[in-house]
Design a protein that fits this description.
Blueprint: H1 3-17, H2 28-37, H3 44-53, E1 56-60, H4 67-77, E2 85-90, H5 93-106, E3 115-119, E4 122-124, E5 131-135, H6 136-145, E6 152-157, H7 165-183, E7 190-195, H8 201-206, E8 212-214, E9 222-226, H9 234-248, E10 254-258, H10 262-277, E11 284-290, H11 296-299, E12 310-316, E13 329-334, E14 337-344, E15 349-356, H12 359-367, E16 375-379, H13 383-387, H14 403-411, H15 428-440, E17 444-446, E18 453-455, H16 457-463, H17 469-478, H18 484-495, H19 507-515, H20 523-536, H21 541-546, H22 551-570, H23 582-592, E19 597-600, E20 606-608, E21 614-617, E22 630-638, E23 642-649, H24 652-658, H25 660-671
Parallel strand pairs: 1-7, 1-8, 2-5, 2-6, 3-5, 6-7, 9-16, 10-12, 10-13, 11-12, 13-16, 15-22, 21-23
Antiparallel strand pairs: 3-4, 14-15, 17-18, 19-20, 19-22, 20-21, 22-23
The structure holds adenosine-5'-diphosphate and magnesium ion.
Enzyme class: hydrolase
GO biological process, one term: positive regulation of transcription by RNA polymerase I
Catalytic activity: ATP + H2O = ADP + phosphate + H(+)
């Protein structure tokens, strides 16, 4: 009697449900057999011959059918690439990294040789690389330097259904490159668009009526449950549902929960672990978070095999909808929510906001339960709530700040962005708002006596950085403020994943350690303090550990800094340092981020300077307990409130000095 026997009782069952618990590990034969067992394998010849025949093709197939990992290999093996590079774009860096690693494994090579990946600030390719997995943003940047994408013979635009801004712009750029090559008699550029959802007529139409190849999926029946009543707290509902399943299902039946973002997921993971600790007579839980900002080595854990007698619970964002396949999932719990970028044309800012998912997303999430055996999907919303969801997700290009994209298009030589061949045109107001923002930042200017906008030398320099135009502007300004070295450190830290480690059972120690880096000037100076301290100990790992600093992310920040510095060198910038005078740093930040300023009102609320929107200081900020009169922020998030997450104290005069005409105009328009 007692737990050991119970455990034994549960043990035999899990092998039936989790094919991942085999004794052998990724031997080459095993991988080859797995490749052959994929639904796509039987269609291999058909796919290759169709792709050979046409300049463009659309491929549709269920998530997990083998599109991303297999099609590039098939084309390579059949020589369709004609010895040039095949690029496979992914909207997410995690997907680009994990999929390329999988393909390298299947090809029995080390990553970076035949198979490589290229994501922002990380290029793991070499002269021999033929399969290059890359983020859509990286290919877009390459196209600025080489508009016909000469190095590539095939470009696979993967996860096209996600319709990220960069994918949408790439559609136009790649289509133009194909046409240009044809006109000038260069080697043909093949375009393959891959999607997990069926609404493809649009893609086919856009790519000159390209043929559509439908892959047969392998989907087991999935039982879908809706709640009887609408749920006011999806987080709470997801935990209740999880433990209901956990009490009854055998070990090895893994569970995937869709929530919305990093903080929510981390807190859910902690709660699940805490609650599970006291449960008896149930399998042990392996609880894993999965979201884009998670360091890649932690993300990889979700692919690991669940130990016998255990149950894996993955708490994920929409990242697990289509771009990443996790084994063993039998139950899906869907909050029906998603965190999305929403553009506020009024403030000109993108806001991360939790919104209702689309039907297309909900259906994809459901599908994750039936990959290997029949499964169950618990939807934490009612049937009628489901019916009211929008059919498809609105493409990002129709709901985000376009400044970065418009700057890139201008740098590509596409001066009339309003007439660019977009698959779905963004609203002219959004394009105009982006153009205006770039004019205010000095990246574009109106030509004398005309409305035509031209890239300025400053704009050209800004486009060279893989950053939001406001960050590029700050870097370019920094040389005038004599603090380029410091600004590079701060922006590198902002571009890397969070370096502050928070250990749930050592909250107090974490806070105390982090306290010594804090600055009354704000979070940006705190990041600088951490960077400086890290440098002073030469990146010592035990120093990181003792101070609750994530050493991998710190190392990445250092790498990012190096790359940003190289771009500055190419721009012949002078490297200046302000030493202890951190005020100049804040002045410089104010000069680049004057559009992101907020001031304290008489009532004690923060209001943005230009649109008088109410915002609050995020609890994670060093300034959370303070009430500075005026701040600039580099990140805005919306949960229960609209929060400024990374901010610095500034003097309002600096803002007016940096952009007098901007504030004057805003003031008059506010009065009228
Ligand atoms: P698709 O692109 O059609 O969604 P993929 O090519 O990504 O499909 O995946 C095909 C199969 O390859 C998956 O079902 C899974 O079995 C396997 N696979 C993909 N990535 C990994 C990985 N990182 N680890 C283990 N197996 C993987
Ligand atoms: Mg895929």
């Amino acid at each position: 009697f007692g737990p050991p026997e119970k455990k034994q009782k549960l043990n035999p069952i899990q092998f039936n449900f989790n094919s991942q618990n085999g004794p052998k590990k990724n031997s080459f034969e095993e991988l080859r057999d797995a490749r052959r067992a994929l639904p796509i394998f039987s269609a291999k010849h058909k796919i290759v011959s169709e792709i050979k025949k046409f300049p463009s093709a659309i491929v549709i197939g269920e998530t997990g059918s083998g599109k991303t990992t297999q099609i590039p290999q098939y084309l390579l093996e059949a020589g369709v690439h004609q010895n040039a590079i095949i690029a496979i774009t992914q909207p997410r860096r995690v997907a680009a990294i994990s999929v390329s690693q999988r393909v390298a494994l299947e090809k029995n090579t080390t990553i970076g040789s035949l198979v490589g990946y290229c994501v922002r600030f990380e290029d793991v390719t070499s002269a021999g690389t033929k399969l290059k997995f890359m983020t859509d943003g990286m290919l877009l940047r390459e196209s600025i330097l080489d508009p016909t994408l000469t190095r590539y013979s095939i470009i696979i635009l993967d996860e096209a259904h996600e319709r990220t801004i960069n994918t949408d712009v790439l559609f136009g750029v790649v289509k133009a490159a194909q046409r240009r090559r044809l006109k000038t008699g260069q080697k043909l550029l093949k375009i393959i668009v891959m999607s997990a959802t069926m609404d493809v007529d649009h893609f086919s139409e856009y790519f000159n009526k390209a043929p559509v190849l439908y892959l047969e999926g392998r989907q087991y029946p999935i039982q879908v449950m809706h709640t009887k009543e609408p749920q006011s707290d999806y987080l709470f509902a997801s935990l209740i549902t999880l433990f209901q399943i956990h009490k009854e299902a055998p070990a090895g039946d893994d569970i995937l929960i869709f929530l919305t973002g990093q903080e929510e997921i981390e807190s859910a993971v902690k709660t699940i672990k805490d609650l599970a600790r006291d449960l008896k007579d149930v399998p042990q839980l392996v609880v894993l978070p999965l979201y884009a900002a998670l360091p890649s080595q932690t993300q990889i854990k979700v692919f690991a095999k669940t130990p016998p007698g255990h149950r894996k619970v993955v708490v994920a964002t929409n990242i697990a909808e289509t771009s990443i396949t996790i084994h063993g999932i039998k139950y899906v719990i869907d909050s029906g929510m998603v965190k999305a970028k929403v553009y506020n044309p009024h403030s000109g800012l993108d806001l991360l906001k939790v919104v209702t998912a689309s039907k297309a997303q909900v259906l994809q999430r459901t599908g994750r339960a039936g990959r290997e055996a029949p499964g169950v999907c618990y939807r934490l919303f009612t049937e009628s709530e489901f019916q009211n969801m929008s059919t498809n997700t609105v493409p990002e290009i129709q709901r985000c700040n376009l400044a970065s994209v418009v700057l890139q298009l201008m740098a590509l030589g596409i001066s009339d962005v309003l007439t660019f061949d977009f698959m779905d045109k963004p609203a002219p107001e959004s394009i105009n708002a982006a153009l205006e923002e770039l004019v205010i930042l000095g990246a574009l200017e109106r030509q004398v006596n005309s409305d035509i906008l031209k890239l300025t030398p400053l704009g050209k320099q800004m486009a060279a950085f893989p950053l939001d135009p406001r960050f590029s502007k700050v870097i370019l300004l920094a040389k005038d403020y004599d603090c380029l070295e410091e600004i590079l450190s701060i922006i590198a830290m902002l571009s890397a994943e969070s370096v502050l480690v928070s250990v749930s059972n050592k909250r107090k120690e974490c806070l105390e350690s982090h306290q010594k880096f804090m600055s009354s000037e704000g979070d940006h100076i705190m990041l600088l303090n951490i960077y400086r301290a890290y440098k002073s100990v030469n990146g010592n790992k035990s120093w990181c550990f003792d101070n609750f600093i994530n050493s991998t992310n710190m190392h990445n920040a250092q790498e990012i800094r190096k790359q940003l510095r190289e771009i500055c060198e190419r721009n012949n910038m002078t490297f200046t340092s302000c030493g202890r005078d951190t005020t100049t740093i804040r002045k410089c930040l104010a000069a680049g981020f004057f559009m992101n300023a907020a001031e304290l009102s008489k009532e004690g609320d923060f209001l943005t300077m230009t649109t008088r929107t109410k915002v609050s200081i995020h609890p994670s900020s060093a300034l959370f307990q303070c009430k500075p009169a005026c701040v600039v922020f580099t990140e805005l998030v919306k949960t229960t409130k609209c929060y400024m997450r990374t901010l610095s104290v500034v003097d309002p005069d600096w803002l007016y000095e940096a952009a007098p005409s901007y504030f004057k105009r805003k003031k008059t328009s506010a009065i009228s």
